[in-house]
Amino acid sequence: MDYLILTETEFFRQLNNDAECRDLRVAYGEFIKQVFKFCCMPGCDLRQLVFMLAYTETELGCLHEKLSPQESERACHIRKALSFIRKMLKYVQTQVPPLSTPSTTPQSAPFRWTGNTVELIEIIYALDEMHCINDGENGINELTAFFGSLFGLEIKDNHCYNAYADIKRRKSDSRTYFLDKMRERLNLRMRRDDERELQRR
């Protein structure tokens, strides 16, 4: 996220222009909408957002100090923008996690992975190959970190790659032991369910 982006808007251009401000009210409205857009953006890096808002607050403060008392319209819009930026900055700062967060322990995870880690890694690589999580935009290390946090596991990158290398070295016709077992067990379950339904009729 470019921390200069809000100071490169039409609103700032008009505030910095010594000529008569035309449509300042419209430019102010568009500026507020843009601030809202950044603050409500899903998956936004909150720390970068704080830097961007803090920089914008500083620039607005400097502009306000330079204004002469006669420039009431410009001063009014700067004060409103400054007040809004400060409120949003205060709100966003409450959402930012501390720089050092304690690592999640296995006991704090609501679910535990009770298979072996190689089996989980087999699933992760299969999901990555199928591009069914975020359209495949995340790398293996990100997926591994996600599933590790989900199940309270620490899966180091080298452990993940070594496990995949072991999977590739398997000699059977199918090297996906766990995925094959999952398919077999799920089909078996559905056959049992079908039989039960037939018996009820």
Helix-strand blueprint:
Layout: H1 10-16, H2 24-39, H3 46-66, H4 72-95, H5 117-130, H6 140-151, H7 157-168, H8 177-200
Helix pairs in contact: 1-2, 2-4, 3-4, 5-6, 5-7
Keywords:
201 residues; mainly alpha; 8 helices; elongated
Describe the protein in words.
- With 201 residues, the chain is mainly alpha-helical.
- The chain folds into two domains: 5-95; 106-200, no CATH class.
- Helices cover 65% and strands 0% of the residues.
- It is built from eight helices and no strands.
- The radius of gyration is 28 Å and the shape is elongated.
Residue share in β-strands: under 5%
In oligomeric terms, what are we looking at? single chain
Q: What is the H/E order?
A: HHHHHHHH
Helix and strand composition category? mainly alpha
The largest sheet is: none
Q: How many beta-strand runs?
A: 0
Shape: elongated
Tell me the number of helical segments per DSSP (H or I, 4 or more residues long).
8
**CA-to-CA gap between the ends?**
62 Å
Rg, nearest Å: 28 Å
Question: What do the pLDDT scores average to?
Answer: 84
Helix fraction bin: 55-70%
Count of folded domains: 2
Low-pLDDT ranges: 99-106
Describe the structure in brief.
The protein has 201 residues and is an all-alpha fold.
